[in-house]
Amino acid sequence: MEIGGLFTALLVGAVIGGLGRLVVPGRQQVSLLVTILVGIVAALLGTAAATVLGVAHTSGIDWIELALQVGLAGAGVTLLANRSRPKLPR
């Protein structure tokens, strides 16, 4: 991987992860690094899903692919936020 590709992946991961955090209601106790990592994974999985569905390459902005990526990032942030939250005794 070239250095430009690494910076692009970090930037896209930060944006997708940030958008994923925005669609999840409430406050999440997830660090910025974890958010970026979730965003990178969600971007890769969302692109793969869009390719399988046949909507990855359209003219203009790929809104369906972006929605898949943000949805996956939101699910990832939610999963990790709920996992790191301490359990209260009943």
TrEMBL record:
Segments crossing the lipid bilayer:
6-24, 31-57, 63-81
Does S-adenosyl-L-methionine count among this protein's keywords?
no
Q: Where in the cell is it found?
A: Cell membrane
Highest taxon listed in the record's lineage: Bacteria
Keyword Transmembrane listed: yes
Keyword terms, alphabetized: Cell membrane, Membrane, Transmembrane, Transmembrane helix
Q: How does it sit in the membrane?
A: Multi-pass membrane protein
Cellular component aspect of the GO annotation = plasma membrane
Give the record's family classification.
Answer: Belongs to the UPF0410 family.
Name of the molecule in the record: GlsB/YeaQ/YmgE family stress response membrane protein
